[in-house]
Amino acid sequence: MTTGAEKATNNRQDNYALDDTLTGRITQAAAAGIVTSYPDWIKSRRGRIAAYVLSFFGFGALVAYTNAQAEEEDSAEPGTFEPVTGAEAPGAWAVSAAVVLAGVLSTWLGTAASRRVVRGLRKRGFAKPWTVLGIVAAAVVYSTSELEARRIEKLAQ
């Protein structure tokens, strides 16, 4: 007899494809570190905005490509999806608006927190505080995605 936890483990599906491969995890971490360090290296506001936009598409494509390269063949068939009609999701617009608002608020709060950390690093004598913050961001992104990949691999066994 299988328990609920065993059933959940056996039916577990990884729906987060961004960290499926080691190269994908490294690419994500590098992108986070590089993009975070831009203010130290690109002084022009317009130049930074252009770099952020180009990086979003460039790193996004690179992460998608590196994660599309399977480390080993997976025999599992892809899941099927059924479209949701408007009648089945009456609050879809409200949920979408809440998600967008949460994203904007999160970005604003994250930027404010980053600026405070950078101000503190400057006071402590760091010449390139955004680069230091980028190194920390890269380490955090890589370690969390690696730990999650290991957890998923352990559950799959």
The rounded Rg comes to: 20 Å
DSSP, total strands: 0
The SSE string, one letter per element, is HHHHHH
What is the end-to-end distance? 18 Å
User: How much beta, percentage-wise?
Assistant: under 5%
Structural class: mainly alpha
Task: Give the CA-based shape.
Answer: globular
Give average pLDDT, whole number.
Answer: 80
Helix fraction?
over 70%
Count, helices: 6
Unreliable runs: 1-10
- Tally of separate domains: 1
What's the story with the biggest beta sheet?
none
Transmembrane segments: 49-70, 90-113
Protein name: Membrane protein
Keywords: Membrane, Transmembrane, Transmembrane helix
List its salient traits.
157 residues; 70% helix; Membrane protein; transmembrane; transmembrane helix; 6 helices; mainly alpha; disordered N terminus; membrane
Explain this structure:
It contains six helices and no strands. With 157 residues, it is mostly helical. It has one domain.
List the SSEs and their pairings.
Blueprint: H1 4-10, H2 22-36, H3 38-41, H4 45-68, H5 92-123, H6 129-156
Summarize the structure.
It comes from Corynebacterium flavescens. The protein has about 160 residues and is mostly helical.
